[in-house]
């Protein structure tokens, strides 16, 4: 089985097995999307309305902004893998609850294990604090974070595109932080072979 087939089978398995209670209110699950050999994985928070309807992550306004930032660093969306901590839309886009994050956590771990990316980028505080509970996004955005975790050991934290979309100063910071990604990748590649 290829890695892409493995990933597909993993999502099929979790569609059945995930015990997240958001299943009851969501239209459908929103699994991660992108190539199984991606070097970079982006982890967002949870699907919003557009994602819930389409079954794909980051396809609404925040997704369009993310696509623009990817283009600005000459990355193609098709070359990166994009997923969320929680795979079902919380009602009215409320914050996901700890038990909802917990219910989806194995799914996230297993998808990232298959991909084994060089770099994992957290989009926003929920994603960051899922793995670095004591860090604040306002303090670590734009920085490399190193720690051995179940999903990898090298991370980069960014403000969430939806939070920055209509906040002028946060938007500027996010755009500037995003531009560091190619350098971060080059730096990692020079000491990880
Ligand atoms: N915000 C997220 O965190 N994830 C999505 O998929 C869309 C918006």
From TrEMBL:
Keyword annotations of the record: 4Fe-4S, DNA damage, DNA repair, Hydrolase, Iron, Iron-sulfur, Metal-binding
Signal peptide: none
InterPro entries noted in UniProt: UDG_Type-4/5, Ura-DNA_glyco_family4, Uracil-DNA_glycosylase-like, Uracil-DNA_glycosylase-like_sf
Catalytic activity line of the entry: Hydrolyzes single-stranded DNA or mismatched double-stranded DNA and polynucleotides, releasing free uracil
Pfam families (alphabetical): UDG (PF03167)
Listed EC numbers: 3.2.2.27
Top EC group: hydrolase
Protein family according to the UniProt entry: Belongs to the uracil-DNA glycosylase (UDG) superfamily. Type 4 (UDGa) family.
Cited NCBIfam families: UDG_fam4
Protein name: Type-4 uracil-DNA glycosylase
């Amino acid at each position: 089985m290829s890695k892409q087939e493995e990933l597909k089978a993993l999502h099929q398995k979790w569609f059945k097995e995930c015990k997240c209670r958001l299943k009851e209110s969501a239209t459908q699950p929103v699994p991660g999307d992108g190539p199984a050999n991606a070097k970079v994985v982006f982890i967002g928070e949870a699907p919003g309305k557009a994602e819930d309807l389409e079954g794909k992550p980051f396809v609404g306004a925040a997704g369009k902004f993310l696509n623009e930032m990817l283009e600005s660093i000459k990355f193609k969306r098709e070359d990166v893998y994009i997923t969320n901590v929680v795979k079902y839309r919380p009602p009215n886009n409320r914050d996901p609850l700890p038990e909802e994050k917990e219910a989806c956590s194995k799914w996230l771990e297993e998808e990232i294990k298959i991909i084994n990316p060089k770099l994992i980028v957290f989009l926003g505080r929920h994603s960051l604090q899922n793995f670095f509970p004591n860090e604040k996004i306002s303090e670590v955005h734009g920085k490399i974070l190193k720690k051995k975790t179940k999903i990898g050991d090298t991370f980069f934290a960014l403000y969430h595109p939806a939070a920055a979309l209509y906040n002028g100063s946060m938007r500027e910071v996010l755009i500037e932080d995003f531009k560091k990604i190619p350098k971060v990748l080059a730096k990692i590649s020079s000491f990880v072979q």
